[in-house]
Design brief:
- The complex is a heterodimer of chains A (357) and B (355).
- Chain A is built from 16 helices and no strands.
- Chain A is mostly helical.
- Chain A has one domain: ABC transporter involved in vitamin B12 uptake, BtuC (Orthogonal Bundle), CATH 1.10.3470.
- The longest helix of chain A is centred in the N-terminal third of the chain and has 28 residues.
- With 355 residues, chain B is mainly alpha-helical.
- Chain B has 13 helices and two strands, in the order ααααααββααααααα.
- A two-stranded antiparallel sheet of chain B has the order 1-2.
- In chain B, strand 1 and strand 2 form a beta hairpin.
- Chain B starts with a helix and ends in a 10-residue tail after the last helix.
- Classes of the chains: A mainly alpha (357), B mainly alpha (355).
Chain lengths: 357, 355
C-alpha cells in the first residue's frame, strides 16, 4: 500500500469517526442542551427505537436475515416484565423490577431461539414472510389473551428506582438508553471480528459453501436470531420504562413497519444507521404532530419517505453519507478513491438475498 | 409440455426439499400431534354433532374467503417473486370502496350494521365489479410505476410494496372513515338455506362465498393448465429470460398477472365485507392470512393455497369453539402451532418448490 492510499484511508476514517465522535459528545451533554420534553420524547425515544432497529440491522447486515419479527420479540420482553412487576395498581405476587427485567430478556431470547429454529431453514424473502407472520401473530396473541394483556395493555408498570419518572425527570432514563445503545453498538462491532461473527458473515455470503466447510448453518442462523432477540429485548424493556405501559398497539404491524422504516432510512446495512434513522424518525414524528395537514396522516408521510428512500437510495442516509465522504476523501487527498467498494458495492451485495442451493 | 412439467415437478421437489431435519423423531412428533387433534375433534363432534356441522361449515366458508384472497397473493409471487405486502391494504380498500358505493346507490338505506338487511342485486353486483376492477387497476399501476424496473430485487420490491401498503391503508381510512360495517347481500339470494338431514339452517351468503372460491380455484387452474397465457405463466415461473428470448412479451404477462392478483384481493374484500364486515384492521388481518396460507401451502402453488386456506379456516373456526373452556382466547396459538408444524417438516410449505 503506497503513501497516498494510506493517507486517503486515514482521511476516510476521520470522515467516519469525526461526525460520530461529535454526535456522541453532543449526546453526552444532551440534558444540558435540550428541554426535558425534547430529551424524553425525541432523543430517548430515538435511542430505544434505534436499539430495536439495530437488532434488525445486525441480522440483515451480518447474517443476511431481514427479520420483521424484532418488534414481536421486544414485545415479549416488555410484556413478560410488565406482567411480573406490580402494574395497574399492584398485585400480591409482584416481583422486584430487576429480576422481572432479567426474566423478560430471557423470555425474548428463548422465543427468539425457538422462532429462529423454525425460520432459520428459510432464506431471503421466505424468511421475511415467516418472521412477519410470527410477528403479527404475537400482536394478536397479546390482544386476545386478557390474562397477559388484552387490547388495553398493561398500564402503570413499576420501574426500577433508578429510572425515576420518565416525564418529569427524564435524565436517568436518557443515560440508561444511551449506555445500552453504546454497549449494543460496541458489542456488535466486536462480535463481527470474532470467529463466530465471521462465520455468520460467511453464512450471509454463501450458505452452501459454509455448509460444505462443515459449519452447521441452521444452528448459526438460529443463534444469530437469538442474539438479535437479545438486542431487541433491551429495546422492549426500555420502551416499557419510557412509556410506563405496554399494549398490543406497541407491537402491531405499523410499529413493525416503523422499525423497518427506521432501519431503511438509516441504511439497512450499516449498524450506525439504526440510530441515525431513529433520530430522523422521532424528530419527524414530533415535528409533524404539530402540523395540521399531516397531524392525522403521519403514516402517509412516513410511507412516502420510506418509498422515496427505497427507490432513490437503497443504502439510506448512511449510504448517502458514504457517497459524500468517499467524494470528499477523493477530493481532499487528490488520490484514487480509497474504497473502490463503496456504498454502491455493499448495497448491491447485500440486496441479493441468499438462496438455498 | 404440460405433462412433462407436471411429471418432473414432484420428483425434483422430493429430492431437493426432503427436510434434512425430517428425522423419525420429528415425524413421529408431528403424527402424535395430528392424532391428538383428530381424537379431540372427533370426541367433541360425537358429543355435539350440530355444533360440529355449523362450526365445520364456518371453517369451510372462511377457507373459501381466505383462498380467494391468498390465490391472488400466490399468483403474483409464483410468477414474479414479488411478495405483495400491500395485499391486505388492497383488500381493505376494496371493502370500504364497495361499501361507500353501495351506500350511494341505495341512498344509505340498505346498509346497516352487520348485514341484517339486503340490497337489490345490482346494488351489490355493481360495487363488487367496480371495487374489484379499481383495485386491480391500482395493482397494475403499482406494478408498472414502481416494481417493473426493480425486477429480480426481491427485498427491494417487498419494501416498496410495504411502503405503498402503508399509504393505501392510511388514505383508505382517511377517505372512508374506517367504521366497521358490512355490505348488504343482494335480496335475490335467500337469507339462509336448510341443511339436509337435519333441522339446521345456515346463512346462504357464506355458502355462496365457498362456491365463488371453488369457481375461482377452478378458473385459475384451467387458466394456468389449459390456456396459452397459463403456459407462458408456467414457463415464466421456471425461466423468465428464456421465455422473453423466445419473443414472448413477458412484461405483458407480468402486468396481467399483477392486475389479476390485485383484482382477487379486491374480490375478496367485497365478499369478506359482505360475509363478515369491513374494518380498519382488515389490512393487517388479511396480509397475515395471505402470508400464513402461502407459507403453509408453499409459495406460488395454487393447490397449496387451497390446502393452506382450508387448514387455516378450519383451525380458525374450530379453535374458537373446541378449546377447553377458559382457554378459547388462546386460539391464536393454534395458528402459530399450525405454522410451526408445517415448517418443521417442510420449510418451503406443503407444495413449495425451491426458487
Amino acid at each position: 500500500m503506497n503513501r497516498v492510499n494510506r493517507s486517503a484511508l486515514t482521511l476516510d476514517r476521520a470522515l467516519w469517526w469525526g461526525p460520530g465522535l461529535l454526535l456522541v459528545l453532543v449526546l453526552a451533554v444532551a440534558p444540558l442542551l435540550f428541554t426535558d420534553f425534547y430529551l424524553s420524547q425525541v432523543i430517548t425515544k430515538a435511542l430505544w427505537l434505534g436499539i430495536a432497529a439495530a437488532s434488525l440491522i445486525f441480522l440483515a447486515a451480518y447474517v443476511g436475515m431481514v427479520s420483521l419479527g424484532q418488534v414481536a420479540l421486544y414485545g415479549i420482553a416488555g410484556f413478560t416484565m410488565a406482567n411480573l412487576v406490580a402494574a395497574d395498581g399492584g398485585s400480591p405476587t409482584a416481583w422486584n423490577p430487576w429480576p422481572a427485567t432479567g426474566v423478560g430478556i430471557l423470555a425474548a431470547v428463548g422465543a427468539g431461539l425457538f422462532i429462529g429454529a423454525i425460520a432459520s431453514r428459510s432464506y431471503g424473502i421466505y424468511f421475511l414472510m415467516i418472521t412477519l407472520a410470527v410477528g403479527v401473530l404475537t400482536y394478536y396473541f397479546f390482544g386476545q389473551v386478557t390474562q397477559l394483556s388484552g387490547f388495553g395493555g398493561v398500564n402503570n408498570v413499576t420501574r426500577p428506582g433508578i429510572v425515576s419518572n420518565p416525564v418529569t425527570d427524564p435524565q436517568n432514563l436518557f443515560y440508561i438508553a444511551l449506555g445500552v445503545s453504546a454497549v449494543v453498538y460496541l458489542f456488535v462491532r466486536y462480535l463481527a471480528r470474532t470467529p463466530f461473527g465471521l462465520a455468520l458473515q460467511g453464512v450471509r455470503d454463501d450458505p452452501s459453501r459454509m455448509r460444505a466447510l462443515g459449519y452447521n448453518v441452521p444452528l448459526l442462523r438460529m443463534l444469530a436470531f437469538g442474539l438479535g432477540a437479545l438486542i431487541a429485548s433491551f429495546a422492549g424493556i426500555i420502551s416499557v420504562w419510557w412509556n410506563t405501559r405496554i399494549s398490543p398497539g406497541s407491537v402491531d404491524l405499523s410499529r413493525t413497519i416503523d422499525v423497518l422504516v427506521i432501519a431503511v432510512i438509516g441504511g439497512l446495512y450499516r449498524l450506525e444507521g439504526a440510530w441515525v434513522g431513529a433520530f430522523v424518525f422521532a424528530a419527524l414524528d414530533n415535528w409533524t404532530r404539530g402540523l395540521d395537514i399531516v397531524g392525522q396522516r403521519f403514516n402517509t408521510v412516513i410511507g412516502a419517505i420510506f418509498l422515496a428512500i427505497v427507490l432513490l437510495s437503497p443504502g439510506g442516509l448512511m449510504g448517502i453519507w458514504q457517497t459524500i465522504s468517499d467524494f470528499l476523501g477523493r477530493q481532499l487527498s487528490g488520490g484514487p478513491p480509497a474504497r473502490p467498494t463503496g456504498a454502491a458495492g455493499e448495497t448491491q451485495h447485500a440486496t441479493d438475498s441468499p438462496q438455498p442451493s | 409440455m404440460s405433462e412433462a412439467a407436471s411429471v418432473a415437478a414432484p420428483d425434483r421437489r422430493s429430492r431437493l426439499t426432503a427436510a434434512p431435519a425430517g428425522t423419525l423423531v420429528l415425524r413421529a412428533g408431528v403424527a402424535v400431534v395430528i392424532a391428538f387433534v383428530a381424537v379431540w375433534v372427533s370426541y367433541k363432534a360425537f358429543g355435539d354433532p350440530r355444533t360440529f356441522v355449523i362450526v365445520g361449515l364456518n371453517g369451510l366458508t372462511l377457507a373459501g374467503l381466505y383462498f380467494v384472497v391468498a390465490s391472488g397473493f400466490t399468483l403474483i409471487f409464483g410468477l414474479m417473486r414479488v411478495v405483495n405486502m400491500a395485499h391486505g391494504s388492497l383488500y381493505m380498500l376494496a371493502g370500504f370502496f364497495a361499501l361507500e358505493l353501495q351506500t350511494t346507490l341505495t341512498g344509505g338505506e340498505a346498509t346497516s350494521a352487520f348485514g341484517s338487511s339486503q340490497a337489490g342485486l345490482g346494488d351489490w353486483i355493481i360495487p363488487l365489479v367496480a371495487a374489484s376492477l379499481a383495485v386491480g387497476l391500482i395493482g397494475l399501476v403499482m406494478q408498472q410505476l414502481f416494481l417493473r424496473w426493480n425486477q429480480g430485487q426481491e427485498l427491494r420490491q417487498a419494501l416498496i410494496t410495504i411502503a405503498i401498503g402503508i399509504i393505501i391503508a392510511d388514505q383508505t381510512l382517511a377517505h372512508f372513515g374506517g367504521i366497521a360495517e358490512s355490505l348488504a347481500p343482494p335480496d335475490a339470494f335467500p337469507e339462509s338455506v336448510d341443511l339436509p338431514f337435519s333441522n339446521l339452517t345456515y346463512p346462504f351468503f357464506r355458502i355462496f362465498v365457498l362456491m365463488v372460491a371453488i369457481a375461482v380455484g377452478l378458473a385459475l387452474w384451467a387458466m394456468i393448465q389449459r390456456t396459452r397465457f397459463g403456459m407462458i405463466v408456467r414457463a415464466g415461473v421456471d425461466d423468465r429470460q428464456m421465455v422473453s428470448a423466445l419473443g414472448i412479451n413477458i412484461q405483458l404477462v407480468f402486468a396481467s398477472a399483477f392486475f389479476l392478483g390485485a383484482l382477487l384481493a379486491g374480490l375478496g374484500g367485497v365478499l369478506g365485507g359482505t360475509m363478515i364486515s369491513v374494518d380498519k384492521a382488515n389490512d393487517t388481518q388479511y396480509l397475515l392470512i395471505s402470508l400464513i396460507v402461502v407459507i403453509i401451502g408453499g409459495m406460488g402453488s395454487l393447490a397449496g393455497a387451497a390446502l393452506g386456506a382450508l387448514a387455516l379456516g378450519l383451525v380458525d373456526s374450530f379453535g374458537d369453539v373446541y378449546l377447553p373452556a377458559g382457554y378459547t382466547n388462546y386460539s391464536i396459538l393454534l395458528i402459530f402451532g399450525l405454522l410451526v408444524l408445517v415448517l418443521a417438516v417442510r420449510p418451503l410449505g406443503l407444495f413449495g418448490r425451491p426458487a
